Structure formats: structure tokens, C-alpha cells
Amino acid sequence: MIRKKWLRGIICGFIAFLFSFSLSFLSFFRILEWKTWDWRTKFLSQPEKASPDLVLVLVDQASLDFYAPQGITWPWPRQMYSAVLDFLTQGGAKAVIIDLILSEPSSYGVEDDLLLAEAIRRNGHTFLSAGFSLNPPVSDEPPDPILKKFSLKEIKNRKAAVIETRSVILPLREFLEGARGLGNVLFSPDADAIFRRLPLYCRFEGMFFPSLPLAAALDIRGEKLLINRLDSEGKLVLQFFGSTRTYKSYSMASLINSWVQIKHGQQPQVKPDEFRNKIVFLATNAPGLLDLRPTPVSSVTPGVEIQATALDNLLQGRAIGFPPRALSLAVIFFFGLISSLIVSLLVKIIWQSLGLMISLAGPWVAGTLAFRLGFWLEIVPAEMAVLTSFILAALLNYSLEGRERRFIKNVFRHYLSPEIIDRIIVNPALLRLGGEEREITSFFSDIAGFSSLAEKLSPADLVKWLNEYLSVMTDIILEEGGTLDKYEGDAIIAFWNAPLDQPDHALRACRAAVRCQQELVRHNPKWQSRFGQPVRMRIGINSGLAVVGNMGSKRRFDYTAMGDTVNLASRLEGAGKFYGVSILISEFTFEKAEANLVVRPVDVVRVVGKTQPVKIYELLGLKSDFPEEKLDWLKIYNQAWQAYQERNFAQALALFSLLPEEGLTRFYVRRCQEFLASPPPPDWDGVFNLKEK
Asked: How does DSSP classify residue 139?
């Protein structure tokens, strides 16, 4: 049975894996995966890992507001950029990256453009932006031949896809002549309009051109630059180190003002040395200049911060990578398998629910750990596999095991306690047709004088009362973990330690017997009014080996116990009438539960059909709640019994006579008198032969 459950779980897990893997190619689930990536990026980013060597000089709203009263509106004169470039050149900046496409001549005249061109030439480490586009060109003029100067002779990771562009927007030729490098800054967001990836290369007119961050990285690192983390589309998946303002930024107005102060021999607002060996981006972030874009970390990220993040990723080798495809598939299959096995192997809904929650958390934990290592491990396909396998396994369980469980519950709910039924459902092999020999404790009960009681009620009333009586007693047996064997009229037959192991089976049976007698006392005032006399019951209990199992045919069978152990319990119940006691237990039962029972010896008997004598006891109660006032007369009884066993019948008679008159003391008073009148033979062994069943 367990093997079948494992097999079902594996099959469901595999089907869920195939289903989830197929769905992962659909755009909806791809976008959903992107959203999980955004969550990881936003909440797990580490700003402290951003390079301090990258700084931003921004045309921010403060800069625009500072110069607007002076009549300087956007777009600014190019000489303002030249002032910033000269300031950075004096400060010793390693590279200056202008994230603006300076494609139009200055409205302030040619001289204004020449000032910036000269500043670019003086700097010697300026990188300019170009816009390579998928749109067709607006004119038939060929591109400027100078463009070839900035093309790449070869590209790394050539197997990755390269975007084919159709047109380009270039900076003015004057600027290109003195530029150190040129890179593309136009790229599209993902299908959900979020910028997560950046293409490193594009192709135009048969030539390959780098993105702006790659152009700078190639110049700074040269052959040492390692590019090995691109996605299937040849794009760099950006590892954002934090939200906006991760990189230190300066207002461009403050640098222009500082350059003017230096020219006039004054102390500058910002010292040029702050930019020594820094990589500086010149760009805009004022809201009105329309260079704000949605990213995983913010819905209004300045475009320059995307470019800076890309360059930082390249220089530090921290771009997001992807685990081997085989590993990604293994993760999907693993979590789908775990989910299906949980449903297949666990029975209780609470454990299945807990398992589902753990399984759902698993892909998130794995994805988070992978993120910390710089890898994008997909979460959504694994989550789909978990849910799909859980549903498949649950439906399969319901269709296959549900019927079996309902059958078992319907058949055995009247015979077994709910706890035992639950355990049988887990392992139905316990109820296979056929028997097994195992130690049990057998329980027989009967109503004393039932025939005379039955005469006092009509048949309908008798059946109604008998059902009430049997229900009360059966509930106690089931509460104590007993298995109801059968009813025979007013008799109840039950046993313990089957079908499930119960190491304390003897104690359970004895406790059930005591509780049954106590419940009888509680109900007797009501029942006595019906019969005109109290209802009494006798119980016989014995422990030992028996054959237990489903006895009968494949179409109809009973779960029952058979053997001498059961027969002796039945004989003990009948012997209760002979000795005048309510509960008789064998020495075998007493030995197993002695530490918890209060008993008195009754006799040593040899039952019909057996030669081996058995010592029997009357079960008086449990030590935990036995009244102390009864311990004195019990002590006297034991002394009387010892005298009887030693053939000192006179002393035994005297001691028995001191005890309260009841069934067993009357029996031994009478027997002692008989033995005094007619002593037993010298070879008497104290064993009494029970001649009745």
C-alpha cells in the first residue's frame, strides 16, 4: 500500500512538472515571474554593494530653478556642459559619460557647440550617447563614416542574440571627433513596461555597437572585462543595488558654480578632488525632462541610474546569472514531487495543509537564496508545480482512497474507536482477509438474569432498552481503544491489541470493565424503575494468544478473534455467577496490569476441556481511585484466603465470617463449612473444576 502511494505521488509530481514547464512559456506566467523578481529586487537589494566610484552629476529640478530667473531655460547652452567637463578634467575623473543625445546644434550658435567640442577633446575620456533604433531612417542619407570608429571589431558571447537596428541618432560630428567612446542608450522595457534588462550590443549597417555602459566598461577594463551573464536574448539582467539615489549625486548647478568660483580664485562649493578617479555620469533627472522610467525598485527611476547600474554590474561582474537549465527543471520537479508525496502519504488534512504551506514556501526560499548568490531561479513554475501536483494527488486520493476510507469508516465505525479507524485507513493491510496470531485481551460481558428481565417488558420496549444499554457500554469500550467483536443478545464481546498494537491492552480492558460497572450503577435508579429490580452484569477478562483477523468469505466477513484465550474469557464471565462476583480476570491479565489494579483472589480453577489450572481474581477497581476504607476488609479477606489455601479451614471460616456478607464471602463460608464437615483428600491441590460453561 505504501509503495502504491509513493508511485502515485511520483506520477502526479511528474505530470505537474510537465504541465508547469509548458505553462511557463506563456506570456502571462512569464510576466508573473517578472513580478516575483521585482519583489526580490526591491526587498533583498543591498545598497552597500554599489560601487562608490560611480557618481552622478544631474540636471535636477534645483538646477533648472536656479538658472531660470537668469533667463537660461532648457535646453541649456553647451558651454554650461563644457564648464562641467573642464571641472571634472581638473578633478581627475577617470571617465565622463554623457547620458544625453546631443544630436541637434545649439540654439546659441556654432560657437557654443565648439566650446563643448573643445572641452570633450581636452577631457579625453568622454563617452557620448547615440540612439540606435528599430524604426526606419527618416532620410536616405548614409550614416556618418565616423561611426565606424566606434564599432566593435568583435563581440564577446557571440552566441547571444544581437538586436538588429535600422536607424541611428548621433551626436554632432564635432563632439564625436574628440569622444573616447560611443554607446547606445535606446532600449525597450519588458512586456509589462518595466525596465529590468539592457541589451549590450546592437547591429547597424553590418557593424556591431556597444551599449553606453559597455562602451565605458570595455575602455576601463579592456580585455579583463568578463561578460558571461546574459539571458537568452543577449540582454544583461540588471542587479539593482537599491532604490533611487543609490549612487552619490551632485546637482549640475553646483559644479558650474564651483567652476566659476575657481576661475575667480574663490573657494569652490564642490572641490574638484571629489571626482578623482571617479566614473561620472552627466544626465538629467528633473521630472519635466522625461527621463524617468519604471524599474523593479521604483516606478520613477531616472534613466541614468539604469545606465549606472549596468556599468556597475559589468565592472564588478555582478550582473544577474541564470542557473543551468537542468537545475531549474530539477527544482520545478522537486517541489512538485514533494507536494504530491505529502498529499499521497499523509492522511490528516491538517498535516496536508501544513505540508502544502511548506511546499509553497520552498520555491520562495530557494529563489531568495539564489538571488543572494546573483542568480535568477524561477519561482512561478515551481509554485505552479506545487499547486498542480497537490490538486492532482488530492483528486486521485479522493477517487481511489476516498472510497476505501469511506468504506472502512462505514463498516467499522460501530466496532472501533475513531482513532483506531484513522490508523487503519493509513494502513488498510491491517484488515486483510485471514488471521494472524497475536496477544490480545478478550472481554466478555452478560446481563445477569436477562430472561427474567425480558419478561417484564414488551418486545418493542425490550429492544429499545437493550439498545440503550449496549450503546452505553459500547461507548466505554471504544473510548478505551477496544475493538467490538460482536453482540450476542445482551452479551458484548470485545478485545484489545488488535488490529493495532496496544502495549497496555490488559489495563485498557480492566479499566473498561470497571467503568462499565460504574456506569451501570449510575443508570440503575432509572432502569430499576422499569424492571422492579437492579440490573447486574458479569464480565470475564483474559489475556493471551489468539488468532485475529477477517474471518469469512471475500463477499462477507467479520473481524474477530478466536482461540483458547477468548474461550477462557467466556468461561470467566459465566463463572461470575457461580462465585457471585461482577468482574473475573485471569492470572494472565492480572500479571500484565498488576501495578494498576486492586483485586482479590477468587479461586484456582480448571475449566471445561482444559487440564491446566488457572488462578482467577475479582477485579475490585483501580488503585488510582480505590476507597481507602475498603483496604482493611480486603486485608482480612487475603488472610482468610491464605488460611483456606493452607487447609486451615477453621481459621479461614472465622476470618470470612468477619467480612461483610456478599456473594464471594458467602461462597467461601459455605465451602469452609463443607470442608470442615468433610475434609478434602490429602492430595488436594486447591484446584476447583468448573463443570459448567
From this structure: S
CA distance 488 to 397: 38
Provide long-range contacts, Cβ within 8 A and 24+ apart, for 103-111. 103/131, 103/169, 103/170, 103/171, 103/172, 104/172, 105/172, 106/75, 106/77, 106/78, 107/75, 108/77, 108/78, 108/79
Residue type, 286: A
What sign has the CA pseudo-torsion 276, 279, 283, 284?
negative
Helix (H) and strand (E) counts in the chain: 21, 23
Q: Is 556 exposed, middle or buried (0-12, 13-18, 19+ CB in 10 A)?
A: exposed
User: C-alpha cell of 48?
Assistant: 552597500
Please provide the distance, in angstroms rounded to a whole number, between the alpha carbons at the two ends of the chain: 43
For residue 302, cis peptide bond before it (omega within 30 degrees of 0): no
pLDDT digits (tens, 9 = 90+) for 208-245: 999 999 999 999 988 788 887 888 888 899 999 988 88
Q: Label the pairing between strands 126-133 and 95-98.
A: parallel
Neighbours of 547 (CB within 10 A): 18
Q: In this structure, what C-alpha cell is assigned to residue 209?
A: 555597437
Measured CA to CA, the distance from residue 521 to residue 535 in angstroms comes to 9
Q: Distance (Å, rounded) from C-alpha 688 to C-alpha 685?
A: 9
Distance, CA of 293 to CA of 200 (rounded, Å):
19
Q: Is the model's pTM score more than 0.85?
A: no
Query: How distant, in Å, are the alpha carbons of 487, 535, 615, 664 from that of 649?
Result: 42, 34, 19, 16
Integer CA distances (angstroms), 603 to 274, 616, 635, 660, 689, in order = 107, 6, 17, 19, 10
In whole angstroms, give the CA distance from residue 95 to residue 78.
19
Per residue in 28-67, pLDDT tens?
888 888 898 999 998 888 999 999 999 999 999 999 999 9
Question: Per-residue b/e over 79-112, b at no fewer than 16 CB within 10 Å?
Answer: bbbbbbbbbbbebebbbbbbbbebeeebebeeeb
